[in-house]
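1st attempt posting a full record on here, be nice pls
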Amino acid sequence: MTVIRSLDTANLRRHKRIHTGENPFSCSDCDQKFGCSVSLRKHMRIHTGEQRFCCKVCDEKFEKRSRLRTHMRSHKSNTPFKCKICEICGKKFTALKHLKEHMRIHTGETPYCCEFCDKKFTYSSSFRNHLRTHTGERPFCCKLCDNKFTHSSSLISHMRIHTGARPYCCEICDKKFTQLRTLKVHMRIHTGERPFSCTDCDKKFRQSSALRSHMRIHTGEGPFSCNDCDKKFMSSVALRKHMRTHTGE
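the predicted structure (as tokens):
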């Protein structure tokens, strides 16, 4: 009976904070405050990059249990929501909302319209992220170096610079990376894949940035300018070499 009364008292204290606005649990990294310790622990994963819910089938990790439950459906054969034009794509989904979003690919529906530039978006999440390009909003802030980000995922990736975490590992050469996209680019070294092709001379490149640099050969663009003599160069490397003629380095 004493234990039950103790739990009831604790729950009542937590509930009262909804009315009083009291947030006694404070984050030591960014000073955000929370009404209960559970919310604080969940928030801290943004800074630590911790993903505590692990799939026992494929070892993929998630921040929230709800996302793990959704992921687990991908390992089961039960995918009751089928695309209405499955003769074309044959995709199936574990949740009705995912099917509805998928159907916009076929219908071309873009229900979210930007009032600033009239761009339209298929998904609300993409629309919200786009709006930040106009508002300049960067709500996710690193309290270690004051860098700010438009997406929480960008902050999580950034925090690995401070923690040293490199969760993405190449199975061929064991190199580790802080971001999945960096690993994917690295894998092209092993696979030989060169997905970015020049339309003028058919040369192919592993990265889009390399293609952009190459295209300057055809366009004659020289975006890197010397402040001393106004000469222009196609790459920052060429500009640095040129600067030695002025510095005598």
